[in-house]
From TrEMBL:
Family in the record: Belongs to the dGTPase family. Type 1 subfamily.
Alphabetically ordered keywords of this record: Hydrolase, Magnesium
Function of the protein: dGTPase preferentially hydrolyzes dGTP over the other canonical NTPs.
EC supergroup of this enzyme: hydrolase
Domain of life of the native organism: Bacteria
This protein's name: Probable deoxyguanosinetriphosphate triphosphohydrolase
Swiss-Prot/TrEMBL catalytic activity: dGTP + H2O = 2'-deoxyguanosine + triphosphate + H(+)
Cofactor(s) essential for the protein: Mg(2+)
Span of domain HD: 72-264
Pfam entry (one): HD
SMART domains (UniProt xref): HDc
Amino acid sequence: MPDLSSRFSIQRPYHSREQAPDSYLVGRCGVRVLEKQLESDRGRIINSAAVRRLQQKTQVFPLEHNAAVRSRLTHSLEVQQTGRFIVRTIFEQLGDRATAYGLDGLERATETLVEMACLMHDIGNPPFGHFGEEAISHWFERVLPELSPFSNGHLNPQQTALRGELLRELSSFEGNAQAIRLISQLQKLNLTYLQTACIFKYTRCATEAKPAKGSPLAYLKKKPGYYFSERKFVAGMQEALDMVPGHRFPLTYLMEAADDIAYCMADLEDGVDKEILTCNHLAALLKAQYRELRAPFGDADAPGFRGKSFADLIDSALGRWQRESINKEHEFFVSLRVGLIHPLVEHAASRFVDNIDAVFEGNLNRALLEDDSPCHAVVETLKRVAIRHVFSVAEVETLELQGYRIISGLLEHYKPLLMLTMEQFERLYQGDKRGLLIESRLFHRLPPKHVKAYLSLLGSVPWLVDGEKLSLEVWERYCRCRLLQDMISGMTDQFALDEYKALSVIGS
Ligand SMILES: Nc1nc2c(ncn2[C@H]2C[C@H](O)[C@@H](COP(=O)(O)OP(=O)(O)OP(=O)(O)O)O2)c(=O)[nH]1
Ligand SMILES: [Mg+2]
């Protein structure tokens, strides 16, 4: 029988007092000490600038002025609420069996862990959402071959191989990997490994190639989950929590399910709020999409949602919309949410319980909500309608193109810093700016915290299997690319726009 309590450790990367390693485990330190440590994590997270910056980052609509439309922060609060609901439902479903799984007395701790993971899950996302990630990746992919240490130099085969892997990493920027870097290196939140592990969504280092579809752990390695720069931190976390490399920590599945449930409804509500869709049109689209997805199962009209079929549920939401005169759209979505949230949360919870062995092992190779069930069809229906009828309308695509231009344009402005030799760049942080007219001014705009993180990373040139180190020139340029990615991805949408305008000498 898997015992989760043996994996709940209060170990952090840095401890002020020396503690014996086994006293970190909840079995030794007790539930009260665990809760106290998690409360401390909670404070660190809520008080972090990275969480505050989410208020000005894109969820779906870049640079949105209407504060009722979701930002990454308000989305994350909704995910937090859904995550807490899932945890409570799991404990209800487990009942007395919680003891057998080592979860006795751990409800409060589990709830806190999942809630905070939900609040933090998007902190690594760059401005302009998915498009921002693409813009950073494309720009680096294009520019990296121009940087001499990446294309020239006498390297041995091991050095050449690692250089190739680092190049692969730098051209695949990923918000989830950046979140691990933010927590461990940039903000140095010094959270318990336990809390950080709950957002460790993908388990592949960005230097590794994406595994073939269908191979073991392919889903968990679908995207890069951490960068080479954080490999030691991740190894420390895996050791502290007894995680097999390539596997997840069990509670991460809950954060992922809460995110899926929250955004699939919210994105449509925002679409209606922005008058991209009407409730009438949306209702027809949802019914048709669900019917199509369930056709092979022949149960499109089955009363699977608290005694109602999906179509009936949509119709009664529409009825509320027609009857209500003041807050019509709100009524529609309240009705939809009330009808769907319980079945979806119960489904996520029972998938967790039914797959508890694989979930505890961290090798369940799919999302909890991903199966052949009507609940999964609902999530898929909501997502597909959003993709086709909200994300791809001209207004949203125009904003995405603007976001792309802003990010690539900003990187272009900062490119002179990447083109300097290692010695010239060193002169900049030593304060000697002679002959570095443009570059010194660009350098002064970099956040000092990020420059310190660069210097700290620079000091740890990796060893190779043959007992040699990677060439310092290659490593330094990798660190400098990371520095630019840290700076760009840490910006909010508005800050990125302002900075772009300022450097391009465009008025507001
Ligand atoms: N504007 C726009 N928004 C999109 C598009 N595709 C997805 N979204 C929205 C839907 C969700 O609200 C949000 C999901 O963003 P994330 O970057 O967190 O992605 P997700 O959690 O699905 O994947 P992850 O595994 O974290 O990379 O982005 C798109 O093509 N355009
Ligand atoms: Mg995400």
